[in-house]
Amino acid sequence: MYRLGANASLILEIFLRLTLAGFQLPYRYEPKNTTIRDVAARAGVSAASVSNVINGRGRISDEKRKLILAIIEEMQFKPDLTAKTLSGMRSMSVGLLTDDRDGRFSFPIMAGLTEALADRGVLVFMSVIDGDGKAAKASVEAFLNRRVDGLVIAGSRTDLVQSLDLSGIGIPVAYAVAGAPPNSCQICPDNRHGARLAVDWLKSQGRQRILHVTGPEHHLETKTRLAGYCDIVGSVAPPLFGDWSEAWGRAAMLELRKSGRSFDAVFCGNDQIARGVLEGLHDAGVAVPNDVAVVGFENWEVLAESARPPLTSVDLGLKAIGRRVGAVVLEPALQANVEGPELLPCSLVVRQSCGGADESQSTAGDRSD
């Protein structure tokens, strides 16, 4: 017969005494790997219904969908993405390909896209390219190797189409502020609407001689923003075309001073131009906004808020565009309803460069992000 040592006998005796006294040792629950069938049983539905909720497909009532999502969270169910990939099912991921290297456009778009897909458990992978066709092709191949469920192409110009043939890749593709082939799902800001907002505001502040300083004449953004400007003021004041830089904004002010043209407001094609216009007016001793009001476009916050004075600008609603793309990128049926491009409204962020802003506030106005 095996005999316990002294220490073991003492431990056993203590344990027995504590047990007889009603004491229970702390129990550490080690959860087993929860399966989709466990979730289905708990929710009182089929495993197929749980799968449909996870994958965002099929017809299921909102009440039942919320119940299943709550149970998934409670049971800490994690879909086996490796198994799903090997079985040819969805990988619960989307690829985002962009040539916007500084993130001015792509980061807000990605934020909205991620927000729209998070509730469905879908991850977003981002790849930044420099316009090189080979790099873009390699990124698409990498996304396909990961078996992403959809692809988003994001850019900063709606008339610049990537040299990529995505027609046969077998997954849905959507375009956000980027050029797109015919019959594609393309979501863009309504630049013409944004320009009308800017010029309407200037008119409401009593400005009558409003000039337009903008970018390259052949760019689509230049054309649509010019069209919105002309909708309000007509074509009596010819625009000044240049590039999208602060240097051009300064040069335009110098050119206007030499020409002797009279103006009390400047609507600029983007924020860099507007920043240069502000600097040029400052150099000439012109008070902004008392003598001349200035409005920019794109609402690049770092630049607009640090301008002298802070710059009123048209916001493109890039995060809202990302959310809209997230709502349709994995739904071919919804994409079919997007008769491209689908234009989302802009908004105006009013700061001190055009008057009408509360000096105690950094921003005001109808802003949609």
Commentary on this structure:
Strand 6 (210-214), helix 9 and strand 7 form a beta-alpha-beta unit. The protein contains 14 helices and 12 strands. It is elongated. The longest helix is centred in the N-terminal third of the chain and has 15 residues, at 6-20. With 369 residues, the protein is of the alpha/beta class.
Count of helices? 14
> In one word, what is the shape?
elongated
Q: Terminal Cα separation, in Å?
A: 78 Å
Strand composition percent? 5-15%
As an assembly, this protein is: single chain
* Rg over C-alpha atoms, rounded to the nearest angstrom: 29 Å
Helix/strand/pairing class, anyone?
alpha/beta
Give the neighbour order of strands across the main sheet. Answer: 2-1-3-4-5-11
Regions with little confidence, pLDDT below 50 for 5+ residues:
25-31, 359-368
Q: State the order of secondary-structure elements, H for helix, E for strand.
A: HHHHHEHEHEEEHEHEHEHEHEHHEE
Q: What share of residues is helical? A: 40-55%
What does the average pLDDT come to? Answer: 84
The count of strands amounts to 12
What can be said about the biggest beta sheet? 6 strands, parallel
